[in-house]
Write a structure and sequence with these properties.
alpha/beta, single chain, twelve-stranded mixed sheet, 312 residues, 12 strands, globular
Amino acid sequence: MLDKFNREVDYLRISVTDLCNLRCFYCMHKDGVSKLTHESIMSPERIKEIVYEASKLGIKKVRITGGEPLVRKGIIEIISYIHEIPMIKEICLTTNGTLLKEFAYKLKEAGVNRLNISLDTLKEDKYNKITRLGKLSDALEGIKIAKDLDFKIKINTVLIGGFNDDEILDFVKFAKDNELTLRFIELMPIGVSKELDKQSFISNQIVLDRCKELTFDHNDGVSDVYRIGNSNGYIGLISPLSKSFCKKCSRLRLTADGKLRPCLHSSLSLDTNGLVGEKLKEIIKEAILLKPKEHHLNIGSDSDKNMNEIGG
């Protein structure tokens, strides 16, 4: 389905939980979240119902997010239900990777095609600092397991000035050595990240300035993708602040409590709870038509939620 700016919206991102086993300082407060009640969280059956109606409007790709989706009870059931919908051609999942040792094979069997794995540092002490709870070794093991199972993998690295910008060349080497695509994402002023120092928000241009062996390869709609020398490693630059991709945005978001969000950076949401059949389909259509032309991150996000509550 086309929105009112003639963009095809065929991609639904579903947050299945606001909970996470980590506490990344740009994503949530150290004490975690005031978790949603069991009654307010969408059931696997309800998620399937919404995705089915959305697929009638042209949704073909679904990404499962959180929080950390692998802490959600019934996550494999949810994915299996979505996989049963004929019009859904791709199921992706975003994870911090620390639980993949337990879940990777099950995810493959259930129908997940792609994994995006968050990795914001290659140093153990920094990993513990940024996540407050995690171990770098768990994330690296998760990446290895995912590679061994032949998942299509992208590594997501939020670039934070004064924290991990000194590791840019290390990340490039990691992508090159492991023949992976690693994407640097500009830190966005949304939720708790608004409390960080202004120096934390830096442009992805710094990656190109520091790494001269990158050669532009293609644009995938969200990121500019560069090949690392003649290797099979690639670097993607997702630059929502310095190079907005709003003109190509194809996304609609669904929160764990059943709210549709036309834009990550807006507080606008539409409640799907209690709606079925044609009424459910109509509110999905309304959400698509309410997608704004662009965000206004240059003056800050007006979202009323943290990233873990929206699905990022």
